[in-house]
Amino acid sequence: MEESLGAFGQDPVWLILVKTVLIFLVLVLLTLFNIWWERRVVARMQHRIGPNVNGPLGLLQSLADGAKLMFKEDIIPKAADKVVFVAAPVIAAVPAFVTFSVIPFGPDVQVPFTDITTPLQLTDMPVAVLFVMAVASIGIYGIVLGGWASGSTYSLLGGLRSSAQMISYEVAMGLALVAVFLYAGSMSTSEIVDAQQDWWFGLILAPSFIIYTIAMVGEVNRAPFDLPEAEGELVGGFHTEYSSIKFAMFFLAEYINMATVSALATTLFLGGWRAPFWIDRLYSGFNEGYWPVLWFFGKVLFFIFMFIWLRGSLPRLRYDQFMNFGWKVLIPIALGWTVAVAFIRMLSIDDGVDRQWLLIGIGVLALGFLAAFLFGSDAPEEPEPDYEPTPGGFPVPAMPAGGPVRGAAAPLTFEQPVPTTTSGARAGAAGKEATADG
């Protein structure tokens, strides 16, 4: 491990600053592009045009929106805690940038116009993935403090919802990563990418990949798990009272967090910067130079498109359904799969059982448990006893015969009025009287 991590920490100060500035610019530009891309894709799904005025194909629309937010009036509510109210967006946005410091964009390359060779990664450490999880968790403080400091009930409820949601789905996300650590034998992001030279972990650890994919959608508060921003209940969630650049920072943090979880999924499950579909077996140059940067961002944009696709396709879940799914379905399955992977690794070390058949058996069991959780039939409910209405009590309508009605309501039918000739006779008599008077 020390040999593989020895390439880090050797760069001159100016190169470290250049890498830092490049990561910052890439994240800001990627955010502007993702906002434009989301609006265009959702517009196409809804048979609309989307942004197409500012710049070619409307590419500068996100920049125009950001400039508009920067110059809008900044309002701080009278009941707000001003210090915490101002600090909360910063606390939410800064960790989103810091997490990209350990993401590998490619292998070692030579810096142009110099003889310096450096990895396309700012830094790495033996516990890099835990560092990402720890720093990303700090962003929760920005959200819950922003909701609390606003002095608004709606914002407070949105902040509490968001913190509970993110903490709940971080548990499942962390359990999904344990299997990757067991197979890679390291928590370093660069070493995890090196461990996927032959097979991606997204294939051999498919349940972990699926669990992580579901958990990352809930982690970043995106549809159909965007419960903290349920405008029908909470107006706008934790950022209801925010405006101007502070609101823009929350918005920026959300989209950078989307890129962060997508980059982490690419690194841990899809081979990182390595060429897809093993085309490097045909030409080894696909994993050299700056080709890996294209593969890496192509995979990241695949996950971003998945976020957009879900937002344009699925309705928002109910909050109790969402939390039940996280605690009663996702976490138990992740725990069971983690134990199974640890058991497989133990047997493979002892060479006691053919690992291929063991993996197939564990996969079948996992699918069976998943089907039982998702499609299991509910226990039959006992019919409720009929009670006589209490004299003088509240007038409650009687229950329908056979218990409460389940499923869609029966369509309403109305009796058609029977046509009568009385009105026609009166109209004719009135017409004759008017003719006689004339």
From TrEMBL:
Q: Where is this region: Disordered?
A: 416-438
Q: Which family does it belong to?
A: Belongs to the complex I subunit 1 family.
| Enzyme Commission identifier(s) | 7.1.1.-
Q: Which Pfam families match?
A: NADHdh
Gene giving rise to this polypeptide: nuoH
Question: Species name for this entry?
Answer: Nocardioides nanhaiensis
Task: Output compositional bias ranges, type Low complexity.
Answer: 420-438
Assembly notes: NDH-1 is composed of 14 different subunits. Subunits NuoA, H, J, K, L, M, N constitute the membrane sector of the complex.
The listed locations are: Cell membrane; Membrane
As for membrane topology, the entry says:
Multi-pass membrane protein
Q: Which reaction does it catalyse?
A: a quinone + NADH + 5 H(+)(in) = a quinol + NAD(+) + 4 H(+)(out)
Name of this protein: NADH-quinone oxidoreductase subunit H
> From which lineage does this chain's organism come?
Bacteria, Bacillati, Actinomycetota, Actinomycetes, Propionibacteriales
Q: Per UniProt, which keywords does this protein have? A: Cell membrane, Membrane, NAD, Quinone, Translocase, Transmembrane, Transmembrane helix, Ubiquinone
Which residue ranges run through the membrane?
12-37, 83-105, 125-146, 167-187, 199-218, 247-270, 290-310, 322-344, 356-375
Q: What does this protein do?
A: NDH-1 shuttles electrons from NADH, via FMN and iron-sulfur (Fe-S) centers, to quinones in the respiratory chain. The immediate electron acceptor for the enzyme in this species is believed to be ubiquinone. Couples the redox reaction to proton translocation (for every two electrons transferred, four hydrogen ions are translocated across the cytoplasmic membrane), and thus conserves the redox energy in a proton gradient. This subunit may bind ubiquinone.
